[in-house]
Design brief:
globular, mainly alpha
C-alpha cells in the first residue's frame, strides 16, 4: 500500500530511468532514489519544513542537501520535461504564481 504523498509503482517506473544513481552511472550513488523522491514529495506536498521530515525517510539535512544538489544539476528539470512531454499526464497543472493579472486589474475601478 502506498503511503500518503508517495509515488505508486507506475509513477516511479516513469521517472526512475532519468534519475542518477543507476549501476551504469559513474561515481557514487545515493542509497535509495525512490525513498529520497518520496521524501521530497512529502515535504513539498505537506508544506512542512525539511526539519519535520519523518524519520522513515532518513536524516532531513541529508535529504535537503541532496535535493539542492539535484536542483543545481538539473535533474528535477529532466524529470519535469519527461512528465510534461506526455499530454495524457493527469498530474499536469499550473501553479497560480504563473498566472498574473495586469497591474490595473488590482484596483477594480472602471466600467462593466
Amino acid at each position: 500500500m502506498v503511503k500518503r504523498y508517495e509515488l505508486t509503482d507506475t509513477q516511479w517506473n516513469r521517472i526512475c530511468e532519468v534519475l542518477p544513481g543507476k549501476s551504469s552511472d559513474p561515481g557514487r550513488s545515493g542509497r535509495d532514489n525512490r525513498l529520497f523522491v518520496d521524501a521530497v514529495l512529502w515535504v513539498l506536498r505537506s508544506g512542512a519544513r525539511w526539519s519535520d521530515l519523518p524519520e522513515r525517510y532518513g536524516k532531513y539535512k541529508t535529504a535537503h542537501k541532496r535535493f539542492t544538489r539535484w536542483a543545481k544539476a538539473g535533474i528535477w528539470e529532466r524529470v519535469f520535461k519527461l512528465l510534461t512531454a506526455d499530454r495524457r499526464n493527469e498530474y499536469l497543472m499550473l501553479d497560480t504564481t504563473l498566472v498574473r493579472a495586469h497591474q490595473q486589474a488590482a484596483t477594480g475601478k472602471g466600467g462593466a
